[in-house]
Amino acid sequence: MTSAAIHVxxxxxxxxAALAITESEIHVDGTFGAGGYTKAMxxxxxxxxxxxxxxxxxxxxxxxxxxxxxxLTLVPxxxxxxxxxxxxxxxxxxxxxxxxxxxxxxxxxxxxRGFSFQVxxxxxxxxxxxxPTAADFLNGASEEEIADVLFRYGEEPKxxxxxxxxxxxxxxxxxxQLADIVxxxxxxxxxxxxxxxxxTFQAIRIHLNEELDELKGGLEAAEEVLKPGGRLAVVTFHxxxxxxxxxxLRERSGATPTGSRHRPAPANARPAASxxxxxxxxxxTDAEVRVNPxxxxxxxxxxxxxxxxxxxxxxxxxxx
Length: 320
Prior knowledge:
alpha/beta; Rossmann fold; globular
């Protein structure tokens, strides 16, 4: 089922400014979704490889691909595998990589996908529509496993209490059912500032889709495929994602300390910087948030690829 909601790309102007696309450049949109970034890239004359592991997103993109001719290639794959996928298309290096992390607006707006508790639906949450569902996880995992997921990926302070309530209420099959269980366990009232179900749904979704591992793999893949001077733009929506991107870029740019005056690091302890920061983190304006409330928590980080070897290759070379 296709959602009728209009998808508004977050920080679109800022992302396009960071990419500084020129005619005939090759760009990767690692998270196609509804195609907002891809359409803007095509409008600026780029050739685009659009990745999405969601088969519905790829299916919806067919018409755009037909209209764009050979300038748009749809890739039904995780963005962490962009190096292998691009190589299969005869492309080894690209001018830009863009990643818009997390669940897409279309996935949230489709009750049958089970990502949101705003409208009741089956407890699914699978981005790629394969593998165990959220219901499978909640009905089969131990109380300790569930509590660990809620604390690690949702930063939920009442994770143990909520996990205990989930186990006591099994079997669970609907998003509305889970939301009610969480609210009751967390002591939610209409006067509460934030619905506690938000953190629980986020945690389960991240765990089920291995989103943080995928993000780390995507950043490393971008490092491998970007040519010297190539631009990386990453939009995140919560602190776990942003911290991972921040740490990766700080490390790869040589900004992370490796020793101290008391215990200096060896001169060859770290490869040469593979990225350089080109701007401070960007947040949406008040005007954008008014138009698109989902942009409220977004952060854009941008970096430029240097001519140094990817760290994975450099470290392998140092060990050989």
